[in-house]
Amino acid sequence: MADEWSIVQSLITAATGLGGVCLGGYMTTRREDKRELRRVEKESGYLAILVVAHLDRLANKCLHVSLDDGTREGRPAALDGETYEPTIETPTFDPLALSVDWKVLPQGLMYGILNLPYRIEQLDNHIVGSWEFDDEPKFTESFWARRFGYAELGLAISDLAKQLRKHAGLPIDEPADGEWSRDACMQEQMDEITEARKARDDRCLAKHAVEIATA
């Protein structure tokens, strides 16, 4: 009987010790999780404040490109006074140059921001291709492609900035009714270019129909 009681006591002692180890490990994990959560929250806040500022500047530069129609003071911008040429340089963006921990962001948001240099590169390549085959001296299609593409990109960048603000709990500034809006201005450029392209295509179709009818 004494031996059995001794075994029971040993089991109780072992169980108590094991329970203490488990509880200690659980409490340690809880503390580490809380520290990691505080670190992520702090890093997310710093990242959002810094990166939002860069995204807003980038969106502003996109707006300026979307307004560039190749003229200066209403006249063709080139020195010959006849040729239209860009007056605003296209923007660049290097997110990896920023000293932040990108891994604290949700995967989709992180990808959207880190993919911006590639999107700019692809857009510039498209514009260059358009420029090579466009008609001088106005280069109408090239300027449409450039302005529309950067307006569209600027709106995407603005949306990323809003998502980042929301993720970090930062205020999202929205212009009041009647106030100037950067995003609305870029959307207007896209709408105007879409209408201009449609009007051109309609004229071409009408001209082609007349040529067929009179052939």
**Rg calc:** 30 Å
Summing up helix and strand content along with how strands pair, one would put the structural category as mainly alpha
Q: Can you count the beta strands?
A: 2
Low-pLDDT windows of residues: none
> Can you write the helix and strand succession as a string?
HEEHHHH
Number of helices: 5
The percent of residues in helical segments reads over 70%
Structure description:
The chain has 215 residues and is an all-alpha fold. The protein has one domain (2-214). The chain is built from five helices and two strands; from the N terminus they run H-E-E-H-H-H-H. It has a two-stranded antiparallel sheet. The longest helix has 65 residues, at 2-66. 17% of the residues are buried. The model has no long low-confidence stretch (mean pLDDT 86).
Can you give keywords for this protein?
215 residues, mainly alpha, two-stranded antiparallel sheet, 5 helices, 71% helix, elongated
Question: Helix and strand layout, with pairings?
Answer:
Layout (H helix, E strand, L loop, with lengths): L1 H65 L4 E2 L2 E2 L30 H8 L1 H17 L7 H29 L13 H33 L1
Antiparallel strand pairs: 1-2
Helix pairs in contact: 1-4, 1-5, 3-4, 4-5
Summarize the structure.
The protein is an all-alpha fold. Helices cover 71% and strands 2% of the residues.
